[in-house]
Model the fold of this input.
Amino acid sequence: MSEKKKESVLAGFKAFLMRGNVVDLAVAVVIGAAFTNIVNSIVKGIISPLVGAIGTKSLDAYTSCLKDPCGVDAKGEPTGVKILWGSVLNATLTFLITAAVVYFLMVLPMAKYLARQEARRRAKEGVQETMEITELEVLKEIRDALVAQRGPNGGSGAAPGTRDGF
Done:
């Protein structure tokens, strides 16, 4: 019984891994990690020096001291309370650049593509509905023309309101 349970657990795990959305998510994570390296390089290599041109060369160097004096004492222990707001600014810039690139290069084009596909699908359905309505109208016209040709009794000797005398 333990062997069957292990097989069913492993089979369930395999089915979970083979779902399309799990594989897509794994690919997205790997690509996202590689993309993060690119964005970090852009922020550290281009954005930070541009911002640092006003002050220091690295955003990480921007700090504030809450409890003076900030520094290191004779024993090598830090003194004061240092707020590293430059690191937070660096991380925020990295996040904003990543979000902007993902939105403008991936989300927006995909949304436009899906909207075009939906419009095409709706247009195709509209044509099909028009064709169905037109066919129905033509069939009604044919029916009315046949009824008119048969005359008031429908062309048979039957009494009005009956079908073929039955």
